[in-house]
Write a structure and sequence with these properties.
heterodimer; A: 94 residues; mainly alpha; 2 domains; 4 helices; 0% strand; elongated; B: 237 residues; Rna Polymerase Sigma Factor, Chain: A; Arc Repressor Mutant, subunit A; globular
Chain lengths: 94, 237
């Protein structure tokens, strides 16, 4: 294999999943120093990853969902009320 | 060029503040923020004694403990389902099915992995089964785990659309994520959005860590393409 500074773009890009996945890449990588194409690729991937983090806020399910689950559990078990909860209210953990 | 370490997983604690983070849902996540380098690769955090007690009681059939487990994990599981299917009603149904399956199978959890990882895996299977039932035309997770020769190492990537590095249109990115094949979408969501590490994803999806890294990379490349980055064959010889 070529030295990093002598890598072709294909060689560099073939190593990208491992380099990125293991956090072993930065702008000082020898190939990146004088390869605008791969610099741009990495910048694009970084932009996508950053944007994705803002994309989907974590959300609570509606409270009624616990009611439905509890009802389904009762049906599955064929038993009476499940102990320990107010109907339709999942306990909050502090 | 900015620091590429922001390709590392996000800090879930910063996004998932709430009761869940008091429990085993936190296990195994990076504590490093996007700007920290290199990304922390910490071992999974064992559940607190209180969480272990809740789990043990739920396994013994204590319904109150099961309800507590629901409260601890509902947001993460619901959000995963919602992100995967993009539909509130369907996400609710899938979350319900995941917790019903949890109720049926909780006795089989032996603690070989973190409970949150195990539960995520269960939920993922529920989601994938639903996608398959719908006759999903997208590739399956299994297929996503197979190397795709046309996308393998050595593929050349062209110059970027100059608009991408500035700002990505939120709706365009949402559409692009939604259009990813299910397997890619799942790994992208688990890593880039939910903040799981590759070793955790590998455990959840029964694949190698290298495979997880590779598939994530392909997912990001597909998103890049979808965001109208025109591939060119212009590479250094």
């Amino acid at each position: 294999m070529n030295h990093p500074e002598e890598m072709s773009c294909a060689e560099f890009q073939s190593q990208l999943p491992e380099l990125i996945g293991s956090g072993k890449i930065d702008s000082n990588h020898p190939h990146l120093k004088d390869c605008a194409l791969c610099q741009a690729l990495l910048a694009d991937l970084e932009t996508i990853a950053e944007a994705a983090r803002q994309l989907f806020p974590i959300e609570d399910p509606p409270p009624k969902l616990w009611e439905k689950i509890e009802t389904a559990l009762k049906n599955e078990e064929g038993s009476g009320p499940l102990p320990g909860n107010d109907p339709g209210t999942a306990p909050e953990i502090s | 060029m900015s620091d590429s370490t922001s390709l590392s997983p996000p800090d879930p604690a910063s996004r998932n503040a709430g009761p869940e983070n008091a429990g085993p849902d936190n296990a195994g996540h990076d504590k490093a923020g996007p700007g920290d380098a290199p990304p922390a690769r910490q071992p999974m955090t064992p559940p607190s004694p209180a969480d272990a007690d809740i789990l043990a009681r739920a396994q013994a059939g204590d319904h109150h403990a099961f309800a507590q487990l629901y409260s601890l994990h509902k947001r993460r599981i619901y959000s995963l389902c919602l992100r995967m299917v993009g539909n509130v009603a369907e996400a609710e149904d899938l979350t319900q099915e995941a917790f019903l399956q949890l109720h049926r199978k909780i006795g089989t959890f032996r603690g070989d992995s973190a409970f949150s990882t195990w539960l995520h895996r269960l939920a993922i299977n529920v989601v994938l089964m639903q996608l398959r039932k719908k006759g999903l035309s997208l590739i399956s997770l299994d297929e996503a785990m197979e190397p795709a020769p046309e996308e393998g190492p050595g593929r050349s990537f062209g110059a970027p659309d100059p608009t991408l590095s500035g700002a990505i249109d939120r709706l365009a990115l949402q559409r692009a994520v939604a259009s990813l094949p299910a397997g890619y979408r799942l790994i992208f969501i688990l890593h880039d959005i939910e903040g799981f590490e590759h070793n955790e994803i590998a455990t959840m999806l029964d694949c190698s860590i290298g495979n997880s890294k590779s598939q994530l990379h392909k997912a990001r490349l597909k998103l890049r393409d979808a965001l109208r980055i025109s591939p060119q064959q212009e590479v250094r010889p």
